[in-house]
Amino acid sequence: MASTISSPSPRWLDQITPWLVPVAILASWQAAAQLGWLSTRILPAPSAVLSAAWSLAASGELLTHLKASFARAAIGFAIGGGIGFFFGLINGGYRLAENLFDTTLQMVRNVPHLALIPLVILWFGIGEEGKLFLVALGVFFPIYLNTFHGIRAVDASLVEMGRSYGLSGWSLFRQVILPGALPGILVGVRYALGFMWLTLIVAETISATSGIGYMAMNAREFLQTDIVVVAILLYAVLGKLADVAARLLERRLLRWNPAYAPV
Amino acid sequence: MGVIDSNEIRALTGAPAPGEARRSGVRIRFDGLSKAYAARQVLNDVNLDIEPGEFVAIVGRSGCGKSTLLRLLAGLEQPGAGGIALDGEPLQQTRDELRLMFQDARLLPWRTVVDNVALGLPGSRADVRRAALAALADVGLADRADEWPSRLSGGQRQRVALARALVHKPRLLLLDEPLGALDALTRIEMHQLIERLWLAQGFTALLVTHDVAEAVALADRVLLIEDGGIALDLRVPLARPRERGSAAFAALEDDVLRRVLQHPPLEDEPQPSSAVSFGQWRWAA
Ligand SMILES: Nc1ncnc2c1ncn2[C@@H]1O[C@H](COP(=O)(O)OP(=O)(O)OP(=O)(O)O)[C@@H](O)[C@H]1O
Ligand SMILES: [Mg+2]
Fold first, then answer.
1. Which residues have a Cβ under 8 Å from the Cβ of A257 and sit 6 or more positions away?
2. Are B216 and B253 in contact (CB under 8 A)?
3. Which residues span the domain enclosing A55?
4. pTM listed for this prediction
5. Nearest CA to ligand 1 atom 1
6. Mutation test of ligand 1: which of B42, B46, B206 has the most ligand atoms closer than 8 Å to its C-beta?
7. Could you tell me if B80 and B190 lie in one domain?
8. What are the DSSP calls for B160-182, one per residue?
9. Is residue B103 a contact partner of residue B178, using CB atoms and an 8 Å limit?
10. pLDDT tens-digit series, residues A47-75
11. Structural domain span for residue B179
C-alpha cells in the first residue's frame, strides 16, 4: 500500500501476520490455565472448552438447543420482519397509510423493546410466545424503517418512465418500485438480524427451558464455566453466519449495482 | 426549391410508404390547448396540426413549455383547457401508439440491457426476447444485450432507450432532448440512426431540442414556442440525407437561431423538466 513506510513483505507473511496475535493469546491462555494461574471457574482452558463442546455435540444436547434457538430466531424474524415489511410498503407507498400509522409506530419505537421483558413475562409466562414476541418486536423496526425509506428513495423519474411504458399497479410495483427499494430493504435485514440475536440472547437467558441461552444459564448453576463459554462462542458464530447470509443475499439480489458486484 | 415531404423522401430512399408492411404515423391535432401551473400560464391556446409520419422539431427558450407540450401528449399531465386528438380521437391516459424518450436514458439498473428493451412488451418470454434483440440490433447494440446498463456509455444508454421505445412499433415517438447530454460526435451518429429508423418505420416524430442545427438536420418542420404559443412554423426544404456543411443548411440554421434569440430570455429560473411532485408517482395511490 502506498501509505505504509516499510518495504513490501512476502505474500505468505501478509496472510499469516493477522493471526499471530490471536494464536499467541490462545496459547498463553492455555498455558495460564494449565499452570494453574487461571482458575477454571473464571475461565477454563481452550482445550477444556473444545472438549466440552465436543461432548455436548456427541450427546446430541447441543443440536437440540441449537434447533430450539434457531427456530425461535427464524419464526420471530419471519413474523416481525413480515409485519415491518408490510407497514413499510403501505406507509411508503400511500400518504394516507403514513398519516394513519407512522406517528403511532414512531412512538412505540421509542420504547426499548427489552424494557418490556417484565411485562412480557406477566403476559406469556416463560412460554415460547413471549420470546417470539420480543424477537418479532426487535426486528420489526429496522425492517419497517428501511423499507419505508427504501420505497421513498425510489427514483421518481424511473417510476414516471415505467408509467409511460404502460406499467401500473402490481407490475409497476414488481418491476420498478420493489427493485428500487431493495438496497434499503436489505440494509434493514442486516440490522434486523443483529437485533434478532441480541433479543434472543437476553430472552433465553431470562426465561427458557431450552435453547443456547438456557444451556448457558443451566451450566452457570452447576459452575460449568466451559459450557458457558461454549454458549457464548455459539452465539458469536450464529451472529456471524447470519451476517454472511445477509451479505450473500445482497451480492445476489443487488448484483446489478456496481457497489455490490463481485470483483 | 419546393417543399419535400417525408413521403417523397421515402420514395427516394426506397423505404416503404406509409401503410405498407407497417403501421403509418399518427396524425396529431392540438385544439386550443392550454396549460397553467398555479399562476404561471405555460401554454396558451395552442392550435396545431401534425401530419402522419411528419418529423417535427420544437425549439424555444428554456422554460417556454416544450417539455410540457410533450408531457401533455404523453398523458403525463392533464391540459387545463382545450384538447389533443390523435387520429381524430381524444387522447387517453396511456396509449400504445406513443412512446416517450427522455433526456436521460432512464434504464432500470436492475435489468439487463435486453430486459430493459423488453419492458412492458406483451407476449411469451421467447417472443419478447427475440423482439428486444432485434430492436437492439437496429441500434447496433445486440452484442451488449446481457450486460447491466451501468456498464454502458451515455450514448449507448440512449441507444438502448431508443430501442426500448421503438420495439413497441410506436406510431408516435416523442423525444425530449434525448441527445442533450451527449458529445457532438455521438450526437451526429444518433441523428443518422434516428433518421434511418424513422424512414424505415414511418412513425410521426416530435423532437424537443436546444440545438437548432439538430432541428434543421432532422425535421420536416421546425416549431418555435414563445409566450405560450407557436411563434414560428417553418418547413425545412432540404433533401435527405442532409449535408450539414451546405450553404442552404447554414442559412436556415442561422434564420432559426436569430428568430429564437429575438425573444428576451425568460426571467425566472427554469425547472428541470423531469421534476415530478411526489404525489404523481405514488403507485396505485
Ligand atoms: N410540475 C410543475 N409544477 C410547476 N411548474 C412547472 C412544472 N413543470 C414545469 N413547470 C413550469 O412550466 C414552465 C415550462 O416548463 P417546461 O419544462 O415545459 O420547459 P421547457 O421548455 O421544456 O424548458 P427546458 O428547455 O429548460 O427543458 C417552466 O416555467 C416551469 O417552471
Ligand atoms: Mg424541457
1. A183, B109, B110, B150
2. yes
3. 48-253
4. 0.80
5. B276
6. B42
7. yes
8. HHHHHHHTT--SEEEEESTTTTS
9. yes
10. 989 999 999 999 999 999 999 999 999 99
11. 6-97+170-262
